[in-house]
Write a structure and sequence with these properties.
It is a single chain. With about 120 residues, the protein is mostly beta strands. About 0% of the residues lie in helices and about 55% in strands. The chain has no helices and 11 strands. Strands 2, 4, 5, 6, 9, 10 and 11 form a 7-stranded mixed sheet that branches. It is globular, with a radius of gyration of 13 Å.
Length: about 120
């Protein structure tokens, strides 16, 4: 079992920045893929960014060029740097750890991001 704890959400004006953190309760291993998802009210949860153990990154088209995912394995933490925020980025942001060996997935409890216009 792995616990994930997101932090860093809050209220920010359009054009501002936030950095989300996701701390894992165990070491992030070479078989772990880390994702950030978000879910806005009345909408399905969508994948925002992914980072593999080798550092390969992938982003949703809606956040490319504005968001950056990174991981610090020594701190068991994944980050999502969000710049040039827009009101449509308002959502609850979730962290997910996918273990490619066991295929198990673990989710955090989410952190609210609200962008005002």
């Amino acid at each position: 079992q792995v616990q994930l704890a997101e932090s860093g959400g809050g209220l920010v004006q359009a054009g501002g920045s936030l950095r989300l953190s996701c701390a894992a309760s165990r070491s992030i291993t070479s078989t772990d893929v880390m994702d950030w998802y978000r879910q806005a009210p009345g909408k399905q949860r969508e994948q925002v960014a992914t980072i593999t153990s080798g550092g390969l990154r992938n982003y949703a088209d809606s956040v490319k060029g504005r968001f950056t995912i990174s991981r610090d394995n020594a701190k068991n933490t994944v980050y999502l740097q969000m710049n040039s925020l827009k009101p449509e980025d308002t959502a609850v942001y979730y962290c997910r750890l996918r273990n490619t060996w066991t295929t198990y997935s673990y989710w955090g409890q989410g952190t609210q991001v609200t962008v005002s216009s």
